[in-house]
Amino acid sequence: MYNSAFPENFLWGGAIAANQAEGGYLDDGKGLTLVDLLPTGDKRREIMKGNVPSFTPLADEFYPSHEAIDFYHRYKEDIALFTEMGFKALRVSISWARIYPTGEDAVPNEAGLQFYDDLFDELLKNNIQPVVTLAHFDVPVALIEKYGSWRNRKLVNLFETYAKTVLERYKDKVKYWLTFNEINMLLHLPFLGAGLVFKEGDNVMQIKYQAAHHQLVASALAVKACHELIPDAVIGCMLAAGSFYPFTCNPEDVFQGMEKDRESYFFIDVQSRGEYPGYAKRFFRDHGLNIEMEPGDADILKKHTVDYIGFSYYSSRTTSTDPEVTKNMTSGNVFGSVANPYLAKSEWGWTIDPKGFRITANQLYDRYQKPLFVVENGLGAVDEVTPEGEVLDDYRIDYLKRHIAEMNEAIQDGVEIIGYTSWGPIDIVSASSGEMKKRYGYIYVDRDNEGKGTLRRIRKKSFEWYKQVIQSNGGNLGD
């Protein structure tokens, strides 16, 4: 028996990011953002770590973000498909460089502002709530060149100006906001997460945690602005979640798993509780880190905490202190994980762990006692179009069915979850690999890794399945 626990106002939908969907990377006055410097192929991961060869796109490289799936020009067509599925919400991001092309322009770019006005109007016309991320891996390149991005305190004020501009502009249209996408990614892929570039001799750890402090203060100032400008809105933080399991019951493995989790929770502890936790302060001491803070920072962080916790969940992770065990690591996972013998893996090496979704949701709610919003979850896979023009993605339906069932169990456990926006409801460029063949969507886009294709949209088998899930408010997940 399946007892659906989803509340009547549950926000079913999907999630995309400007830099992975929009394209039009220089249209209507937009400036370059960091993702516009990420090519497809082997070089991409090295650049995401902070080894950046050029601040301009190179002629001999292909940059998938430059056109992506052309959502910038085709959003009405795509929203019509989301409406057909019955979406209640669509998570999108605003490209900072569409609004302030250099990051510090005297006035915002009206063409960029108007695009998002039109996008939000189209969503609202179709009874779809916009869920808007202020910063989704898109620092303006001009700020990276001039200031070194988030290593410089200057970005706090520039981000606050940007946030106030869009909050004021869209205060009557957007009631759900997020500050930074997967803020903990800064530690693992620092160029992707924060536009950080390193040179020989840099104290990389010091730079990363100083940048993290600047982002945390900027996030708190955005929360403050949202509460003042849009009193009936809510604004959350967001982390790339997924619990670390100890490989054995050896206390050393258990302790390491706790410490691995804390690498991510550290950010949310500050955003949700308003202060640096004791373990973070010890970490700074033990590693000789001196985080520069201005006198008012502690007060800003304490007074302006988030309303809810947004998180992505794709897989759990496993950790061990045994060198023999750590020889067997999974591929493709940004966080690094020992292979879990109890779990299957995706084509890209990500463990598939629906029960871990329930575990993670419970841990987050127990820790913060604030509403949760699942803003990313999905399966990247190679989809093939049959000669009949169909995409039979039963593997995706199976993945999502099992994860939604565990989310339902978490709600029955007492976890408050306000919505579920699965990742990439339409095929978009993969953030980690830059590929199009790593597809997540209910809608196939005719586009390959080299940028070839008609961009035609095709409903997959999962399209009708998710439509059924939404119509039944999660009560009917299929056979």
UniProtKB/TrEMBL annotation:
Highest taxon, organism lineage: Bacteria
Keywords on record: Glycosidase, Hydrolase
Database matches in InterPro entries: GH (IPR017853), GH_1_N_CS (IPR033132), Glyco_hydro_1 (IPR001360), Glyco_hydro_1_AS (IPR018120)
Catalytic residue list: E376 (nucleophile)
Example of a GO cellular component annotation carried by this entry: cytosol
Record keyword Hydrolase present: yes
GO biological process: carbohydrate catabolic process
Molecular-function GO term, any one: beta-glucosidase activity
Entry keyword annotation includes Hydrolase: yes
NCBIfam families, A to Z: PRK09593.1, PRK09852.1
Annotated family: Belongs to the glycosyl hydrolase 1 family.
Name of the molecule in the record: Amygdalase
